[in-house]
Amino acid sequence: MNSSVIVFPGSNCDRDIAVALEKSKFKNKMVWHKENELPKSDLIVIPGGFSYGDYLRSGAIAAKSNILKEVVKASKKGCLILGVCNGFQILIETGLLKGALLRNQNLRFLSKDVYLKVLNNENKFCNKYKSNELIKLNIAHNEGNYFTDQKHLESLEEKNLIAFKYCDKKGDILNDSNPNGSLNNIAGIFNEEKNILGMMPHPERMIEDILTNQDGMKLFNSLFN
């Protein structure tokens, strides 16, 4: 299995993602955003960070980079695409995922561990998780407040396109367990074909017990599986 990690000026989780992919036995390559061609890839990852310093809107400038044209083409051919944090924002800006990521409800940057419930494990990203499994990942963002129109929100719920929701340590999905004000506690969504996943929490930060836990490792193992 071959993976590619797209690197922008301001990416700061690209090496962490690479470590997680290599631990899952992917053959990974780092791809600079100005490139015009992608290596052969079964999976493309757009990592977290602050591409172009989050000027204009988070991900807005990065979405115009040369390589994103190739990422869009690959997605239409069924290639798996994962966008984490700033990567999620970039996927929104390219139109590969619908909606918007607004300023956090409390207007503060958030960096902490949060609980998530896995809502859909019938896909290539989450098949190693159990349905409704409770996991803990880290968030670090200023614009993670997912918003969309009512029609699309209903479609996400009805078509089971929500990958994760923020919850408490018991697994209850409550307003109090929503760190950023995201609609319906949404932490990650799929496109309709389920070959694209955008998520705000960082699975690459949870791959070693000695550091935190291995809850994120199941996502990378799912992809390799």
**Remind me, CATH topology?**
Rossmann fold
The multimeric state of the shown protein is single chain
Biggest sheet layout: 9 strands, mixed
What characteristic shape results from the CA principal axes? globular
Question: What's the CATH C level?
Answer: Alpha Beta
Q: Report Rg.
A: 16 Å
Strand content: 25-35%
Order of helices and strands: EHEEHEHEEEEHEEEH
- In total, the number of domains comes to 1
Task: Walk me through this protein's architecture.
The protein is α/β, with parallel strands linked by helices and 225 residues long. It has a single domain, classed as Rossmann fold (3-Layer(aba) Sandwich), CATH 3.40.50.880. Strands 2-1-3-4-11-10-9-6-7 form a 9-stranded mixed beta sheet, sandwiched between helices. It is globular. The N and C termini lie close together (9 Å).
